[in-house]
Amino acid sequence: MSRLQAEHLYKVFGRRPDEAVAKLEGGTDRDELRTDGTTAAVIDASFAVEAGQIFVVMGLSGSGKSTLLRMLNGLLEPTAGRVLFDDQDLTALAPRELREVRSRKISMVFQHFALFPHRSVLENAAYGLEVQGVPSAQRKRRATEALGLVGLAGWEKSWPDELSGGMQQRVGLARALATDADLLLMDESFSALDPLIRRDMQDQLLELQKRLKKTIVFITHDLNEAMRLGDRIAVMRDGRIVQIGTAEDILVTPANDYVASFTQDVDRTRVLTAGAIMAEPEEALGTTTPDGTVLRTESDIVAAAPATVTADTPIVELFTPCSRSGVAVAVTDEEGALIGVVPRARLLAVLGEPEPGAEQEADDGPDATAKGPVAIKASKTAQTPEAPEGKVIAGA
Q: Which residues form the ABC transporter domain (predicted)?
């Protein structure tokens, strides 16, 4: 069941916003409205976030992503549409009720830390609890626990200006965690950090998420960050959501040229997984290994494979076994049952580098012009003729 839902959200700044929404619904272009002094920041945005999911909203500056985030907790009132959190319509709440929801159920982590310079690290981490009216001893205990979660145990009495940028951001994250809010909204939270510190914070968030299972909406302009963090990703352009999907969906089947242009510089080897590129196990049946063994059963395939991996294994981890053996890597489920194979040619094809002399699978299908992962994805469901007895798998 969805924890958070956005339904047809619009945010228009300027004169006669309701009329502007009607024009947008009728097909008027955003640029046409701007000539009249009206700015459509968010246009017909709809999505759902499941419990325990990191939902990333990604887009360039001016795409509307931060405006969208601020409508989710009522900092900005939508011009049209509504926001549901645990089936409660936040857009219908009175100001006092909305403040109560924000103080107890929704926490926000800002880009520039937003720490009070005259308060200690512990006092900053406890601030949200202070707003809730939590007694002093209890809020100190919970803030101390939250600081421990983000790796700042022992820094409670320090001042913000004594901390590095990454440590200050950890304090901001601890403040959000201390309130035990069900929903975390993170607005470009790591973008002000140096690259190494930024990756460390990403690691920290992923580790915390394994333990705490929070529902998180994360805003970023960095596609690599989106791909690394997001269970699902929404790509925004000019106020509209142009695609929603997993990292693999967006890499393999971009909705349009705009999305495709974003993905061209992404390190696919660390995003795509064995499950995204694997072929059916039957593709390896009937083949012969270099030592003359014919693979007649799925057990033969697993026994002969240079490595056995799970579906969520990044393909970067398949390079070594594929380079050492012509036999396909075996992909198994949690029970150890074979669910697919990754031949060497398929691994190279997903990077756009077909093995010399290897026939590209996509050439025989309706997506013959597709390149890289699109061709691989399309071929996964294609009917493959049964392999002839004795076909050699070396180089496959």
A: 4-263
The predicted-structure confidence for 240-258, as pLDDT tens digits, reads as follows 999 999 998 898 889 999 9
β-strand 338-342 against 329-332: which pairing, if any?
Answer: antiparallel
Are 262 and 113 in a shared domain? yes
Domains in the chain, number: 2
Residue 132 token pair: 């809730």
150: domain CATH number is 3.40.50.300
Distance CA 43, CA 61 (A): 16
Which pLDDT value is given to residue 216? 96
Are 217 and 49 in contact by the 8 Å Cβ rule? The answer is yes
Residue 353 burial (CB count, 10 A): 10
Q: Is the pLDDT of residue 272 over 90?
A: no
Residue 77 CA to residue 91 CA, distance in Å, equals 7
Residues 6+ away with beta carbon under 8 Å from 203:
none
Average pLDDT, the chain: 85
Question: Would you call 253 helix, strand, or coil by DSSP?
Answer: coil
In a domain, 335, yes or no: yes
> In the Cβ-directed half-sphere of 342, how many Cα atoms lie within 13 Å?
34
d(CA 342, CA 376): 11
DSSP string, 132-163: HT--HHHHHHHHHHHHHHTT-TT-TT--GGGS
Instruction: Using the predicted structure, report yes or no on whether residue 52 has a pLDDT greater than 90.
Output: yes
Residues 112 and 161 in one domain: yes
What Cα–Cα distance (Å) separates residue 3 from each residue in 50, 52, 149, 183, 370?
A: 5, 9, 24, 9, 37
Return the structure tokens found at 203: 């690691």
Domain that holds residue 233: 51-78+91-270
* CA–CA dist 185, 170 (Å, integer): 15
Output b/e per residue, 167-186; b: 16+ Cβ within 10 A.
Answer: bbbbbbbbbbbbbebbbbbb
Residue 360 has pLDDT above 70, yes or no: no
